[in-house]
Structure prediction request, 396 residues.
Amino acid sequence: MDGTLQERARATRRSLLEAAAGLFAERGYAGTSVNDISARSGRTSGSIYFHYASKEGIALAVVQDRFANWPELAPRYTDEAVPPMDRLVALSYDIAQSLAEDPVTRAGARLWAERDTINVTLPDPFGLWTAAVTRLLAQARVTGDLAAHVRPARAARALVRAFFGLCSLTEAIEGAATVNDRVADWWQLTLPALRVAR
Amino acid sequence: MDGTLQERARATRRSLLEAAAGLFAERGYAGTSVNDISARSGRTSGSIYFHYASKEGIALAVVQDRFANWPELAPRYTDEAVPPMDRLVALSYDIAQSLAEDPVTRAGARLWAERDTINVTLPDPFGLWTAAVTRLLAQARVTGDLAAHVRPARAARALVRAFFGLCSLTEAIEGAATVNDRVADWWQLTLPALRVAR
Prediction:
């Protein structure tokens, strides 16, 4: 393929992925057919099978594109000018917003919740978050901001799971508009145990 | 109906509910048919339709039976001989164990997670937990054990959602055997903000 063809293929894959993500987020995996994706993207179903092989293949691509990888968040949490604990809090609000508003992230979360009904192994989406949080807590230890009894890897595991549960249940019960407030309530209950008292 | 018939009807309803719960917990709502429930319970599908009207009806009954109501937990958290914050922690371990081990509770949690695919409105299962936690925190305020900045209703909402997320994700990622340990890690990160420093 020459450059133009590669670019065109990439644009096609992207438009298929975004159309599928919108449908998965709204209707779930079982409620979305290859024909629906074709209709929404304006591409043929042959194009879907060519680029993603199956409905399972496009679901896997949606989960990997954002929910399990967070490509856009990396710059934010590596900025060493900001204290690590502040970066952790900022990161959580970014993720909460993405879970509430970004269709590809939302679709990834919904597909992961429906994983038992999808005939493909989806990646554990929390490994990467947990590694990132562990790193930030370890940096906070170095800068003297982490309370003595906190063990970074254990704490990160509990924080990530509790945080994701908070965001997804808040959205389910109250809607996306209140997620930010509930995350603030949760940090009030959590930061005192993490921070060294000054 | 005379007494014996009523008792027999109750026993039939119970055995249908437990057979359905076992199947819903293992295979999910879509993966369970009325015929499957009939085969597992050893009752006719006519009996299922007579007692629960539909597969939706029996799913609703499963959610209401335990996951959304916690009938067995009430005595534990009203024992005033135990300090309210200790009751809160004990309650959380009871619920975590029930979510990990009791088939009817597990089925309720799974059906709630799959609620978008079930054609009936399931009750919000967190209202009752949140009210119970609010009451315990308010009692801890009275006994002087609750930190000054904590507002019981707001804190209860965040605690219940974070806790449920922690339990269900831990089970999904690591299996039921580690849930207790992760709840302990989580309380270490949460109790310091709730308790008055002594």
User: Anything to note?
Assistant: The CA atoms of residues 115 and 185 of chain B lie 30 Å apart. The interface with chain A takes residues 28, 30-31, 113-114, 116-117, 124, 126, 149-150, 154-155, 157-159, 161-166, 168-170, 173, 182, 185-186, 188-194 of chain B (CB under 8 Å).
